[in-house]
Amino acid sequence: MINHALALGLGAAGLLAGLPPAKAVVGASGSGGPLGAASVMVLGSRGSVCSAVVVAPDAVLTAAHCVTGADAFRVHFRERGEPVLIEPRTIAVHPGYVPNAIRTRQRSIDLALVRLPSPLPANFSTASLVAAQRSPALGTSLMLGGWGVAREGDGASSGTFRTAPLTVVEPYGPSSILIWAADPQGRGKTAGAGVCRGDSGGPIALQSGAIIAISTWSKGQGKRDCGLLSQGVLVGPQRAFIDRTLASWGRSASWVGE
């Protein structure tokens, strides 16, 4: 459903700098490619901008904080140059999601599934998800994708899908819940490419292109928010939630690495 009035309102809100809480790919060196063909944006009525991964023709996977805390949300993409905003049919938030978990130091599974009222256009593809139950080995190469800002603080640079290579780091040791990644050169010690505003809910993929995690948070040097460490929720350990939810909608995800 194309709603031009809402498109203009939410689109303008998404271009403002300093909006909460979604984070975009700073230091991007690639273009959309296959990851971009399986990704859309999620916009909130309070100005939030996020990314999402297509897991079924009419369902996307994103971060829970991208679809909570506002009065309305829309899945957004462009078709033949025109903005399209679709009101979700259903939103399923992971039962383990805890708002403000970082501030309150609680464990949180920041994932949600969004069902659309009809399938996405045929030019979209469905992503494969990695069934692995733990973060890959230290130093494993990854690819980050998202619709967020190319430069922190520059809201006008969002709205284009970009990719950037990252590598697995372990600031707190191996994990069965989260993946931590950093610029291959800086490795979490110096700033480089990473998740930033607008990238939350977007894909973190293995070199095969299969999605191993959904972006949820980032950290920069000093008071900056982006460029040092990128965090995502591993999808494999949350397979039961994903499969159960999609099955209730008559859908299923494609899993690899079982």
Question: What is this entry, summarized?
Answer:
With 258 residues, the protein is mainly beta.
Which helices and strands occur, and which strands form pairs?
Blueprint: H1 4-14, H2 33-37, E1 39-44, E2 49-56, E3 59-62, E4 73-79, E5 82-86, E6 90-93, H3 101-104, E7 112-115, E8 128-130, E9 141-146, E10 162-169, E11 178-182, E12 203-206, E13 211-219, E14 229-234, H4 239-248, E15 254-256
Parallel strand pairs: 8-15
Antiparallel strand pairs: 1-2, 1-4, 2-3, 3-7, 4-5, 6-7, 9-10, 9-12, 10-11, 11-14, 12-13, 13-14
Biggest sheet overview: 7 strands, antiparallel
Unreliable stretches (pLDDT < 50, length at least 5) are 1-23
Helix and strand succession?
A: HHEEEEEEHEEEEEEEEHE
Shape: globular
Kindly name the structural category.
Answer: mainly beta
The residue-averaged pLDDT reads 87
What does this structure look like?
Helices cover 12% and strands 32% of the residues. It has 258 residues and is mostly beta strands. The radius of gyration is 16 Å and the shape is globular. The strands form three sheets. The chain has a seven-stranded antiparallel sheet. Strands 9-10-11-14-13-12 form a six-stranded antiparallel β-barrel. The protein is built from four helices and 15 strands. The protein starts with a helix and ends with a strand. Strand 4 and strand 5 form a beta hairpin. It has helices spanning 4-14, 33-37, 101-104, 239-248, and strands at residues 39-44, 49-56, 59-62, 73-79, 82-86, 90-93, 112-115, 128-130, 141-146, 162-169, 178-182, 203-206, 211-219, 229-234, 254-256.
